[in-house]
Amino acid sequence: MPKIIKNQTIWEEEHSARRRMCMLMITHACNLNCSYCYETHKQNKYMSVEQAKSIISKEAQFVLKDKKFDELQIDFMGGEPLMNFTLIKEIVEWLENGAIDVPWLCFASTNATLISEEIKLWLHEHKESIILGASYDGSKNMQLTNRGTDNYTIDLDFFHELWPEQEFQMTISKETLPNLAEGVLYVQRKGYGISASLAQGIEWDLNDALLYREQLCLLKDAYLADSKLTPLNKLRRIVDVFNLPSYEREQLQRCGAGLNMVTYDIDGNCYGCHMFTPLVLGNQNALPIENVEWGKLEVMADNYCKDCVLRCFCPTCPGFNYKYRGHFSNRDKRWCPMVLAEAMTACEFQIERIAMIENLTMQDAEYGKTALTAYKILQQLDIEKNKSPYTVACMNI
User: Full-prediction pTM beyond 0.85?
Assistant: First the structure.
């Protein structure tokens, strides 16, 4: 029975170019209404088991024939995918019985509020076949602020026991930003891993950027004081910064949408990723996979950012760009000071941390050199005074 190597975290697919990503929108329904949710066309609709089997069988045959891929990952998505748990259960057991002839792994991203004792028991029995990634926004008050309810008890211990390497996923809203450090440390001091991302489509402003910098510095100091805590992903990132006047490094498409990734809606229609489906864009504006020139620089690169030293560090998503600004390349310029605050703090953390290591490895030394090089550029910028794009011309040289 073919399987993907055990004990992987789902995020390792970023390092597996040989893996085909097949996302199934198994429901348009959700039991919550989170303040930052971008799925603005929810309906009480569900994919059938027969449809799911047909799609997976087709994708497995594609992997067998295409020399680029060796493996197939099936992502169950929504809405809240556990609202269609019957499908998840049937598909996983069908795959375990040898339904396809390629290595596979299943994943579902969940708000973690619908896991009954029956579901827990089943997941215990099938934990090598499916990984669940839980979204969790910090303290109880942060959950209430973002999710609109605290009626659910989320069993974090259960997730950590079954998939200990899988980090919880926090979304930072404008309302929970003032408690970012508190919320992250609340989760980490319980022994759990957590990653964070800023909510999309939000009116981030300069005051938010200054507050973000303050909160990240609080986290930086906590990690320097306690090496047992795993630094938040925002402070671990390599700060890819360039003191260059033009496109020596391109703004390439950072995700696999439309390339090694494909999404099928409940009716079997195909899209580059879930961001282009009717659940996100509505039936009239949904964008089929064949309508986009995926991976082309001239389609995905924002000309506004071409001289910015943070152009490759700055996160961008073609789907969010298209939904909120009408084009794959059009980045949210309200993020610029937020990204600068993140890059500056990450550099400081990495430099200070490496300075505390007595016996540096070659990798540590290279990591520190990269952070120092970037910081020499970034410390010439002022979050309050400098406006994006952050170019050589706007620096105090």
Answer: yes
